Amino acid sequence: MRIVVADDQMMVREGFSVLLNAMPDMEVVGEAVNGREAVARVRELKPDVVLMDIRMPELNGIEATREIVAADGRTKVLVLTTFDLDEYVYQALRAGASGFLLKDASARQLAEGVRVVASGEALLAPSVTRRLITEFSRLAEAPRLPAAAPGAYGELTERETEVLILIAQGLSNAEIAGRLVVAESTIKTHVSRVLVKLGLRDRTQAAVFAYEARLVTPG
């Protein structure tokens, strides 16, 4: 997996680079000190994953994420934050980030987080992430995701709606398959259809949509 680390703090960039380069299946191919440089690095290097800090000069991580997602459908963005309830994280998820990770995460958590988003899954399993999405989807004043018009979920079948709700609750394909007692391949098909019908990019946007559509409510 090819990775770009974007953070305005040199110690953070170098620390993450050392940790990730120590993994046999990962290589840090570039670093960026601000959002504008992160966008340029992605355009130049075509990485699989970008570790993106939110609070950076020139162009913040939210806007950089939006530009990267719009220009490159393959590169996944994993947002880095210092606080587990960072007010900007929700907006980064809406911009297309595949999840977020705290900067004090262990080397194992960091590597696993990169693997999760690189595989196309959303990094939504930790309870803190579900709490964040629930809270900020409830409080957000911004409109819904542009591609997901109000009532769009009415196009989903009953099973697809059920799968969407379980995605929003942080379950993986394998966990959803176990819950519904079907093959994992069947769940992958359902997830693909949900994304196509709602006009969404990935599981993270699907989860955000489910909260905004009130298909999932704060527990």
TrEMBL record:
Domain Response regulatory, residue spans: 2-118
Residue(s) carrying 4-aspartylphosphate: D53
Residue ranges of every copy of the HTH luxR-type domain listed in the record: 149-214
Lineage: superkingdom: Bacteria
Keyword set, alphabetical order: DNA-binding, Phosphoprotein, Transcription, Transcription regulation
CDD domains per record: LuxR_C_like, REC_NarL-like
PROSITE patterns, A to Z: HTH_LUXR_1, HTH_LUXR_2, RESPONSE_REGULATORY
Pfam families in the record: GerE (PF00196), Response_reg (PF00072)
Protein name: Response regulator transcription factor
Species of the source: Streptomyces griseoaurantiacus
Lineage: Bacteria, Bacillati, Actinomycetota, Actinomycetes, Kitasatosporales
